[in-house]
Amino acid sequence: MARTVIDSIGVATPSRTVTTRDVVGGCLRPLDLPLELMTGIVSRRVAGEGEYSVDLAARAGLDCLSRSSIAAEEIDLLINTSISRIDGPSWATYEPALATRLRLLLGCRNAWTFDLANACAGTFTGIWLADALIRAGRVRTALVVSGEFVSHLISTAQLEIDGRHDSRIACLTLGDAGAAVLLTRSGDDRTGLEHIGLRTLGEHHALCVAGPSDRPHGGAVMKTQMAALAAVGIRESIAHAAESLAELDLTVGDVDRFIPHQTSSVAIRAGIRHANRVFGVDALHEGNVIDNLATWGNTSTTAHLVALYDAARDGRVESGQRVLFEIAASGVTVGTAVYTLDDLPARLVGGRSSTRPTPSATPAPLRGVRIGAVGLATEGATTIELLREAITGCLAGRDQPDLLIHTGVYVTGLIAEPAVAAIAAGELGLGGDFLGFDLTNGGLGTLDACRVAAELISAGAVRTVLVAASEDGGGVRRRGSALLLEAGDGGFAGFHSRHFDEHLADFHATAVQEDGRSFVRAGDRRLLADRTAALVPQVVAELLAAHGVTEEEVTTVLMPDPELFTSALPFAFATLEAAPGDLVVIVGAASGIEIGAALYRM
Predict the structure, then answer these.
(1) How far is CA 336 from CA 195, 236, 406, 463, in A?
(2) Is the pTM of this model over 0.70?
């Protein structure tokens, strides 16, 4: 079977360089800590004046596309995996999704787009999803892109750190970068992605949390139990790598290069020692483990791709080599990706673009994927309380799902990391061979997640998916919901969406801070609802025409509800009166404006 292959990589290098010595020296209270020696970080690149998350992501995406023969309009799927949503001097954008803006900036006019978040594992979660859809023939090409402007956490931490054991120390290791990877189908089974797997261990979600500071000076900050997080990450990621190699019938000696998450050189060396004990041989060493920290620091979701890009350009990684990516992120999420390189390193060194044509795609129709259970929440006061009520009701008497996708946009406390799905998994005791991540696209996020779930289940990548939503803020009703998707008769029969770029600026919702308070400032949702209502008939007509369905065959249309927002679909479905065989059209809408619609057979 042909594999998913990296057609191109792009990187955006921020304009400024800041040394670790200057970072430590900038702390309000003297910090007696040899941070450069501990971390191996001599300097890091940080965003300059007017550079923000979306700018770094766009530059990386354009760099990536410039190295590919695949045109922007041939991109079928565009996933933004940034943790940071900083889009201006003092605000973070929640709506529209950054992927919607990137779609326009990059010229990917035919792409299905959404944001995905899973802490530092976000980019590889996006790659995991894209790989499943490419191998199943559901999409031909996918662009996974991230822009991380996280160095602003340094400024907040410098004001707050009170000693060498302060939980905010990890903020001082951060750096900024943009990275993008263009994925498509390989022409053979000798190069490309051999394996990718991820696992969420939600019981450790409290080890690293990032969000707004509660101090009067404002800003954002990350609090990390560094030693505990490193210990869990090393132990679990190495165990996962060992399982993955055994599954592939490979030994650790069959791997040429190892690229761990770039957090600190001390953690990388500890990982080498632990891996060699687990494998029983001294297979990992400084010669084959990529450490890119000296000049970049920890660039979050972009770290692995930046390390691969640099190592390919300076000869540490060569064409034909097998690379193992060790994935570890707060949440905790761990994973392994095993990849055999084609001529990508040689192309990066020589400045050559790919000549790979866009593959054809003839995806089979979706197999039956139905909504098997619904859970609703109206009483919870916080994100987790709402999710607990909805998920518990949805899963009553059922086995836990393979995958949890959280689609809520507005989170109690405006927490940016870890993924809400990981927090919910930990609080509800979901675990084992399990993955959780967040997918957001305004009010359309839940329908987008249903589409992801239907595609994955239909392709056999997972058996059951729980799509959960919760909202606490943003000018929408505080509600929670959960849908359990599973294989079965009837169910989703097709999806369609359309962007209306002329309305991109019609509505914005941003997180702002004033007098030490953090809150969301949103535009007029009534205007957004009016614009959406006028555009829905066109999108529904296109959906019906694409699937050869007449209006007379449709029994019911479930419309988006601006107040229920991401929970509109579950609440409508729970009260739907329909007979077996009835055909329902489900409509969702996101600011941007983007309208999505789906056919559902009862």
Answers:
(1) 8, 11, 23, 21
(2) yes
The topology (CATH level 3) of 369-601 is Peroxisomal Thiolase; Chain A, domain 1 (3.40.47)
- Distance between CA atoms of residues 324 and 339, nearest Å: 6
Q: What is the pLDDT of residues 304-359, one digit of tens each?
A: 999 999 999 999 999 999 999 999 999 999 999 999 999 999 999 999 999 988 88
Q: How many CA atoms lie within 13 A of 421 on its CB side?
A: 31
CATH number assigned to the domain with residue range 4-350, chosen from the 4 options 3.40.47.10, 3.90.1150.10, 2.60.40.10, 3.40.640.10: 3.40.47.10
Per-residue pLDDT reduced to its tens digit, 541-552 = 999 999 999 999
**What ranges in 469-524 are assigned the alpha helix state H?**
none
Residue 147's nearest CA partner among 89, 102, 202, 107 is 102
Residue ranges, comma separated, of all CATH 3.40.47.10 domains in the chain are 4-350, 369-601
CB 197 within 8 A of CB 124: no
Element (H, E) at 78: strand 77-80
SS (H, E, C) 530-597: HHHHHHHHHHHHHHHHHCCCCHHHEEEEECCCCCCHHHHHHHHHHCCCCCCCCEEEEEEEECCCEEEE
Count CA atoms within 13 Å of residue 518 on its CB side: 22
Report yes or no: 21 and 209 within 8 Å, Cβ to Cβ.
no
Condensed to tens digits (0 to 9), the pLDDT of residues 465-516 reads 999 999 999 999 999 999 999 999 999 999 999 999 999 989 999 998 887 7
* Nearest Cα to Cα of residue 324 among 296, 285, 290: 290
Q: What is the amino acid identity at position 317?
A: V
